[in-house]
Design goal:
With about 300 residues, the protein is mainly α. Among the domains are: about 70 residues; about 120 residues, Serine Threonine Protein Phosphatase 5, Tetratricopeptide repeat (Alpha Horseshoe), CATH 1.25.40.10. The longest helix is centred in the N-terminal third of the chain and has 121 residues. It is rod-shaped, with a radius of gyration of 61 Å.
C-alpha cells in the first residue's frame, strides 16, 4: 500500500511542475485533480480492505491457535490416559505373573498330593485284596458250616494236568470235569457261563449225584440276578426231584429268602417253618429261626 501512495505523490508532483511551468491548461489541471481525488479514494478503499484482510487473517490465526491449543490439550489428555493404561497393564501383567507362579506352585503340590494319594490307594487296594482273600476263606468256612460246597476260588490257578482218560473241555467232558468247570465259572462271577454249563451238565448227566447241586447253583444264579421267581422254581425242583439230596435244606432256606425279597412274607414264613420242622438240627434251620424273628 505504501508503494501506491509514493507513486501517487510522484504523479502529483509531476502535475504540479507542469502547472508551475505553465505547460498545462486549466482544464487539464481539473482533470488531473479529479484523477488524484479518485486515486486517493481508491487508495483509502484499498487500505480499508487491506486492514479488513489483516483483521480476518489475525482472527483466523487466533482461531487456529485456539484450535491447536485444544488439539494439544486433547493430545496431552490422551497421552496421559495412554500412560495410565500402560501402567495398569503392566501392573496386571505383574499380578498375572504372580498368579501364574502361584498356580504352578499349587499344581505342583496337587500333583505331589495326587502321587501320594495314588500310592495310598495302591496300599489300600493291596490291603483290600488281602482282606478279600481272608473274607473268601471265611466264606469257604461258612459254606462248609452250612453244608454247601466250598468255593473253588482258593484252588490253585495253575492248570491241572489232564488225567488219563479225562476228555477235553466241551461235549466230551466227564461229569466231574463239566461240573467243576461250571462251578469254577460260578466262583469267578461268570454267572451266565456257569448257568449254561450247569444246564449242559444236567442234560448230559441227569442221574449224577451232583445233579441236585447243579440245580441248586442254577437257582443261586437267578437269586443273585434278583430274578427271585426263577430262583424259587429252581429251588423247588431241587426239593421235588432230589428229596433225599443234601441240598434240600439249603434250597428251602433260599426259597424262603426269595419269597421274603419279593415281599411275600406269608409264603416265606411257611417255607422257613417247614425247613425248621424237617431239619431242626441243621445250620439252615438255625438261620431260618433267626430270619423268622425278623418278621412281624
Amino acid at each position: 500500500m505504501n508503494v501506491r501512495i509514493v507513486t501517487g505523490k510522484a504523479v502529483l508532483l509531476s502535475i504540479l511542475f507542469m502547472v508551475v511551468g505553465g505547460c498545462a491548461m486549466q482544464e487539464d489541471v481539473a482533470v488531473v485533480n479529479n484523477r488524484f481525488v479518485a486515486l486517493k479514494r481508491k487508495v483509502v478503499t484499498e487500505d480499508r480492505e487491506a486492514a479488513a484482510d489483516r483483521d480476518a487473517l489475525r482472527s483466523e490465526i487466533k482461531q487456529w491457535g485456539q484450535a491447536q491449543a485444544q488439539s494439544d490439550e486433547v493430545y496431552r489428555t490422551k497421552h496421559a490416559e495412554l500412560n495410565a493404561l500402560m501402567k495398569d497393564l503392566r501392573e496386571e501383567i505383574q499380578e498375572l505373573g504372580g498368579r501364574l507362579e502361584e498356580n504352578r506352585h499349587e499344581s505342583k503340590q496337587a500333583l505331589d498330593g495326587l502321587a501320594e494319594w495314588k500310592a495310598k490307594q495302591e496300599d489300600q487296594s493291596n490291603g483290600l485284596a488281602r482282606e478279600a482273600e481272608g473274607n473268601l476263606e471265611r466264606i469257604v468256612r461258612l459254606e462248609q458250616y452250612l453244608g454247601l460246597e466250598p468255593s473253588e476260588k482258593l484252588a490253585s490257578s495253575e492248570p491241572e494236568e489232564t488225567k488219563p482218560g479225562q476228555e477235553d473241555a466241551g461235549d466230551n467232558k466227564t461229569a466231574d470235569g463239566l461240573y467243576k468247570d461250571a462251578k469254577q465259572k460260578f466262583d469267578e462271577g461268570a454267572y451266565e457261563d456257569a448257568r449254561h454249563l450247569f444246564q449242559a451238565f444236567l442234560e448230559k448227566y441227569p442221574k449224577s449225584d451232583k445233579a441236585d447241586s447243579a440245580r441248586f447253583w442254577i437257582g443261586e444264579i437267578y437269586y443273585r440276578d434278583k430274578w427271585y421267581e426263577k430262583a424259587i422254581l429252581e429251588y423247588q425242583r431241587v426239593i421235588e426231584d432230589h428229596p433225599k439230596g443234601n441240598k434240600v435244606s439249603s434250597a428251602l432256606l433260599k426259597q424262603g429268602f426269595a419269597f421274603s425279597n419279593l415281599g411275600d412274607t406269608d409264603n416265606a414264613k411257611l417255607i422257613l417253618k417247614e425247613l425248621v420242622r424237617k431239619f431242626p438240627e441243621s445250620n439252615e434251620a438255625r438261620i431260618a429261626q433267626k430270619k423268622l424273628k425278623t418278621f412281624p
